[in-house]
């Protein structure tokens, strides 16, 4: 006499519990849009970018989240001045900075307001002051 096949193991004993949905990781908010930006007075390419046209309500975490995911990102410094806020961002090399210069030009950061940010190469690499002429 043959035994019946064993029943498949059921860890819930017939009481199936619906799976609990896991929340998706909270991504950095994507830029809402891009606006055309006049950038006629750019500097020669270097590994540091100057970010202008940031609204006075710019959120450092949102700005850092936008740039820190870019390949080659090293560090960032926000400079809040009386009339405007700007940012300097250092990358590992000129190629990394150039890719960001082109891909994020005119990005509108929601907390910043309605302006598209202007990205230029910095006059000097991050942390280096222009050499003064001796004479």
TrEMBL record:
Residues 47-124 form the RRM domain. Gene3D superfamilies: 3.30.70.330. It holds the Pfam family RRM_1. Keywords: RNA-binding. One of its GO terms (molecular function) is RNA binding. This is Cell wall integrity protein scw1-like isoform X1. It comes from Punica granatum (Pomegranate). The gene is LOC116192070.
């Amino acid at each position: 006499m043959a035994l019946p096949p064993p029943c498949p193991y059921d860890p819930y004993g017939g009481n199936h519990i619906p799976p609990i949905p896991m929340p998706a990781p909270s991504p950095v908010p994507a830029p809402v849009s891009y606006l055309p930006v006049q950038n006629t007075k750019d500097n020669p390419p270097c590994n540091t970018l100057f970010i202008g046209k940031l609204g006075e309500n710019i959120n450092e975490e949102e700005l850092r989240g936008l740039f820190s995911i870019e390949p080659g990102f090293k560090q960032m410094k926000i400079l809040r001045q009386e009339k405007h806020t700007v940012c300097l961002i250092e990358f590992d090399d000129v190629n990394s900075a150039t890719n960001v210069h082109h891909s994020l030009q005119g990005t509108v950061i929601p907390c910043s307001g309605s302006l598209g940010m202007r990205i230029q190469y910095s006059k000097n690499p991050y942390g280096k002051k222009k050499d003064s002429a001796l004479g």
